[in-house]
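Deliverable D5.2: sample structural annotation.
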Amino acid sequence: MLHRGITVPHTYPLSQIMAACKRLMAAIASARLMMIHTRSALGVCGVQGYLPHMTNTPAPDTPDQTSWKIIAYGNKAMIEAALIAHEDAFDWDHDIILSGCEVDKSRPDDWQLEAWLPRRPTKADKAAIAALFADGAPPLAAEALPDTDWITLSQEGLAPIRAGRFWIHTPDHAASDDATLRNFCVPASRAFGTGHHETTAGCLHMLSYMRAQGVLARNIADIGTGTGLLAFAGLHLWPRAYATASDIDDACVGVVEYNAVSNGVKLGAGAGELTMVVADGMADPLLTARGPYDLLIANILAGPLIALAPDFARALIPGGSLLLAGLLETQEEQVRAACRRAGLRLARRMVSGDWSILWLRKRAAAGNRASQMGILPEWSRKW
């Protein structure tokens, strides 16, 4: 499944950008879990980040908080064009979350656009969705979604995966008996990142590759950690490293600590231990004090990756490694250009589905210039 990320005006503070991204992550993750059980063949949806409990129980003082979905069918080009138009809609209501996917993998040109709403769609909601179609909108069908325990259902639908040196499974599935693999049991929870999304699995593959290439990591930070899985993987590959996991959402703290204990990952501030911190990007005294780092991991979204590129570069030692994910392949050029302006060079890239996974290294001596989404000069996108 293809998902287009939020685009926001470059004058917004980074905290607002990250907050908007969190709202996107929550609804897309919810959509993903629901679609696992409503279609037999579809692509993968979701991004690393915050995943709230997915029950639709109304609050005591709210008469109706039932979630709704609007569906429009069209060919691939039509749906992708609508998703791109959504990126450019700066005044978009971020309570309306869009995703696009194939209707059936056997018919790759037949796509559907889905809009997820926390309320009954209004005329204005439908008009905003229809306006994304430049040549006229197809029919829009709306339906209320049932009250369902999506967390339980999602665990039934997530088979174990092998990614690099790792075997990732939920509690409903057994660990691997392959002695060459490190097992991690990650239940579906309020923090997204069970390893099943292509960005997370791609990071696990790339981390394994980096270790095989002789990369040494003595100080690791995972920014936007979610469940903590990528930080755990880093500590397995470099067991004497200091490790810090951060997320903008304090709901992740308990999730990371639970997952660490259940997977035998030590919590603490010493070598071979993991420290968890709530932080907005790199703006936290503890993240600063524990730096500089020789490995930074950030599996978030393209917009924050562009905005944070200078901060990442400043936090790395010369020659240090930066692993980026959460960006679509179509967004890669802008992310790479922003990293180049910040003094980072590409070491290797891989593509996992529609998503790019980038390993970059900090140049020994280079300038560090900030970039803003959508305004990079054309020549800088072609390096």
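Annotation notes: Residues 14-46+67-144 form a domain with the Alpha-Beta Plaits fold (CATH 3.30.70). Residues 14-36 form the longest helix (23 residues).
The annotation will be released with the project's public dataset once the embargo ends.
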